[in-house]
Structure formats: C-alpha cells, structure tokens
Amino acid sequence: MRNPLRSEAEAFRFLIAVIVGALVIVGAAAVNMWLGVAAAIAAVLGILWWLKDEPVPGAGDSPPRLASETPPGTHRALVVANETVGGQALQEALGRLAQPATELLVVAPALASPVRHWVSDTDGARAKAERRLQTSVAELEATGFTVRGEIGDGDPLVAIEDALRTFGADEIVISTHPEGKSHWLEQDLIGKARARFAVPITHVVVDLAAEKTEVSKA
Amino acid sequence: MATHAEHLEHHGPPAPHYSSRITPGVLGMFLFIASEIMLFGSFFTAYFFVRVVNGTPWPTPPYHLPVYVAFINTCILVTSSFTVHWSLQSIKRGNVWGLRAGLLLTFLMGLSFLITQAIEYSRIGFNTSNGAFATIFFCLTGLHGAHVFVGLSILAFMTIRAFRGHFSAEDHHGVEIGGIYWHFVDVMWIVVYLTVYIL
Prior knowledge:
The complex is a heterodimer of chains A (218) and B (199).
Chain A: H1 8-31, H2 33-52, E1 75-80, H3 88-97, E2 102-109, H4 114-118, H5 123-142, E3 146-152, H6 156-166, E4 171-176, H7 183-186, H8 189-196, E5 201-205, H9 208-217
Parallel strand pairs in A: 1-2, 1-4, 2-3, 4-5
Helix pairs in contact in A: 1-2
Chain B: H1 5-9, H2 24-53, H3 67-92, H4 96-123, H5 131-163, H6 173-198
C-alpha cells in the first residue's frame, strides 16, 4: 500500500489527488445533489485505489529465507509448542532427536483470541503459556537437557524468527495437535516454516487426549 | 548448519530486528496518521450527527458562512503547499536561496491564513454558544487552525535553520518532514472547507 506521508513528494501528490477529488465533488454537487454524492464516493474510491498502488520496489516480495548460526561445539534445538508443550510424545521425540549435550530453547507462543490480540489483552494467554512452559522445562531438565523456556509472539512464525535471532539453532522441532484439531496445521505452519527458515524442521504430533486415556488406563 | 565465524567476531548489541517487517519510521508515520484520523474523525462524527442525523440547518439561520473569504484562504493555503514543495526541490538541487525564499513565502502564507481566520472569527456574528451548528463550526475550523499553528511553528524553525545554512543538497531531512506535515494540514483543510463551507 502506498504511504501518502512517506516523503514530501508523495504527500504533495496526495494533496493534488485530494484537490482534484474535491473539484470533481463540488462540480457534480452543483449540478445535482445525488450526483455530488456519487462523485464523492467515486473520488474516495479513486483515492483508495491510488493508495493501494504499490510504488516501492521489492516491498511485495516474500521475505528472504532466514538461516541460523550456532557457536562451535554445541548442538541446539528450538522447540515450538503451545498446548502440547507438556506432551509425552514431544518428550520422547526430543529424546530421540537430541544429541548429547544438546541445548534446548522451548518457545511457547502466547495464543490469544484475535479480539484479545488486537486490544492487547494477552496477559491471560501469556500466564497460561508460562505455566505450561515451567512444567515442561522442569520435565526436560529432569531428563538431562540444558533447557531454557520463553514465551513467544502469538504468531508461531514470528515467534520462531524472534527466537532464531537470539538463539542460533541447528534444528527446529514444532509440536502440534493431530490433523483436524490443530489450527497451526490448518494454517500450514509446517510448510510455511520450511519455506521461511533454512534450518531442518521436525514435526511432532502430540495427541493429548490419547495420552490422557493411556495414563488413565495405566 | 552451524556457521559461526562471523558470529564470534561480532561485538556490541545485536542488529535491530523488526518482526513485523515495518520500519520504525513508517510505523511511526502510520501511528501518526491513525491518531489524526481518530482526532478529526471524532469531530466529523459530531458534524455528521448534527447536520445529517439531527437535520440541523447548515448554516443555521440567520447566520451565514463567509464562503468567499474562506475560498481565498483556501487558495492561500494550497499555494503555500506549492511553495514548500518548491523549497524542497530547490535544496535538492543545492539552491539555498530557493529554499529560503520558498520557506519564507510558505510561512507568510500560513500566517496570512491564520490571521484571516482570526479576523473571520471576530466578524462572523456568532460564537460557540449559538447552537450545535456554531459549536461544530468552531471546533472543526479551530482544530484545523491549531494544526496550522503547529505547522507554522515548525516552519519558523525550518526557515531560521535555512537562513543559518543548516540544510544542503545532501542533508535536508528537516525540510522533508516539515513539508509532509504542511501538506497534511492542507489536505485536512480541503476536507474541512468542502464539508463545512461548500456542501
């Protein structure tokens, strides 16, 4: 979208567009009131169409693939999970994937509803994610990993990008609910993450309902 | 995937990271536009309710709006946008005197606009206590007048700096920002003039 206040030249062009639109409205309104209303609607739509035009080269391009860097002699894995962060399947997958002396950063995106997100009422979502994260980090530490936990952005892709900026990772593990229960899978998070990050990505499916059933049977 | 040579040589704080991929400058300008839209929008909403929903005659008899004086004022303000644009184009080509003349003319025209508006207020024959029409008229034109006053203050500093030789063909960001604000004030006046005086 064109930003009419990006530069003085853009603002000047916007002013000219507004003057032309105003003249059209006044001229049409002098002939007939409803013609004036139609001209006003047409002028506003015309200016919106003009604003929609994208004049910045490359602004519409998809972002470059983000690589990651790790210090020598270390192996780091970035784990992204929210409700499934305490899942048994995730713990087992990490046990299989991780090498000795692996450092883990577990990121739990604070998922709030769209309304709560837009009004910045995300305290509840952050608190829930924080509780799940504490439990999960404690369990992973008990299995011998060096683990750190962080609350991430509500958008898991942004949460991964943020984490990779400060925590270079050799691999990313994304934990989701099974197909049909997972919003992330519905949004093709795994595909988008593979396209955006030049880091190997492992997808772990955690079925919390099945795990609870197994526990109750045991 | 562990590439680390540059990582180890890096000193100081990490490079800024913008998750949203919107630069702070653009984001700041969007926030500014949003705040101004909300401010003027609230006044235009009051105008809409008074004139359209309540059907208050506009202007309410026996009062009249000085449409032609306001038209002259509009011409002055629109012309001042051309002079500020000329001043920026001048300094981009290294023409310092063009910059100074453009800014001085813009300042004088802005001042003329504000003085004319003050005279218009003093002779208009009604005040804010003369009904909803009068209140909305003074609120909308006064809010815009306040923006012109801020713009004039910015222009005054820009002009003083121009005469002190602070701007050059390479360094004229201060003129650019002031020019953007002045065009914005002009755009808002066209909307106010159209809705309050003409339609």
